[in-house]
Amino acid sequence: MFRDAIRKGGPLSEVVRQFIDKGQLVPDELTVQIVRLWLDDHGPDGGFIFDGFPRTLPQAEAFDRLLAERNLPLTLIILMEVKMEEILGRILGRLSCEKCGALYHAQNILPQQSGICDKCGGQLIRRHDDTAAILHERMQWYETLTIPVVHHYESTGLLRRVNASGLYERGFVDILELLPV
Ligand SMILES: [Zn+2]
User: Fold this and answer.
1) Could you tell me the pTM of the whole model?
2) What whole-number distance in Å separates Cα of residue 98 and Cα of residue 92?
């Protein structure tokens, strides 16, 4: 959603870009504002899945309020657990399409033609924030900022843990099994 906001332009895009380019966390208030705009734009039709949000306790609490105001109950929370060394390998090899944002991996998910997106023909690039130093910093944020979110949702009884190490396919199947048909 951040990358989308940047691509589309608009009043928040420059502010968001500055945080993303430096690999810094986008502040809670700005993050919640972007989620609120998204909810207003898309409405509840057919439901939705947020990936990687909320990441902090204040975001989770604000999200609870946004959903309550719109009378949208959460139905499922999935925590994907992956080993640290695997996270490093995945992120450091990650390539994304400049145009459409599709994700590839330098070893695991190769495009048919090197450096070119299968879906739209755009150029594949490494993100500025995919470096070992920035990743290490993010893992520390995870410990201090995101673990409290896990505790927050544990009390709802909606939290399910998925072992997302190893094959992408296995974690994917485990998640599909959790989703309502
Ligand atoms: Zn593309």
Assistant:
1) 0.73
2) 17
